[in-house]
Amino acid sequence: MQKIGIMGGTFDPIHFGHLMTAEAVRDEFHLDKVIFIPAASPPHKLNFKLTSPLHRYNMTLLATASNPYFHVSDIELKRTGPSYTLDTIKELSNIYPQAELYFIIGADAVQGLPTWHRVDELLQLCQFIAATRQGCYPDVDAIKKHFGTAGQRIHRLNTPELEISSTNIRKRLQRGYSIRYILPEAVCNYIEKEHLYQK
Ligand code: ATP
Ligand code: MG
Questions:
Q1: Residue 111, ligand 1, Cβ within 6 A
Q2: Alpha-carbon gap, residue 11 to 53, rounded angstroms
Q3: Using a 6 Å cutoff on CB, does residue 51 contact ligand 1?
Q4: 73-86: per-residue pLDDT in tens?
Q5: What distance, in Å, lies between the first and last C-alpha atoms of the chain?
């Protein structure tokens, strides 16, 4: 059976934390591919000004181009309204009816999982892989327990902790600091060419 990883995020901008995590999960869980899905307007970031979806999509394409296992989908960008993961996973289960879907999230995101839109239904359609993230140490066992037997569909993976966040990258750019070596060079060049994240 085909195993597909899904890496959702705003990717504003995408960085080595996202890429390294996706690759570690792919390796460890023997995934056939990982699909990166930039979110249009995530429910938890509705009051937050994001860079245009097209720029975030382009940066995600550039960042993943050299990895044959990595793909990028625009399904969330095509929908209007808040980007609920449930809608995305439903769409993907229709496209890949035979596949096992694994949604990859960092430790900061796993904490909020019980509050996600129709999360019980979501857990029936995909499994979750909670990757380590520097500075966030949620009680994953308590979260698994919260979901009862469905909690077995939440897996944990220890990944190297890279102290990188898009928030920090945006701040560095606003202050005029270098962002080289924390995200792919092609993305750095794109940010420079398009004058993104400046004051
Ligand atoms: P922002 O600071 O704008 O929230 P971010 O760096 O947290 O950006 P997101 O696009 O919000 O990036 O994250 C998408 C997914 O990637 C989330 O599941 C998040 O937990 C995970 N993630 C982001 N950065 C890392 C990292 N350094 N290590 C592990 N997981 C990460
Ligand atoms: Mg985040």
A1: no
A2: 10
A3: no
A4: 999 998 878 889 99
A5: 48
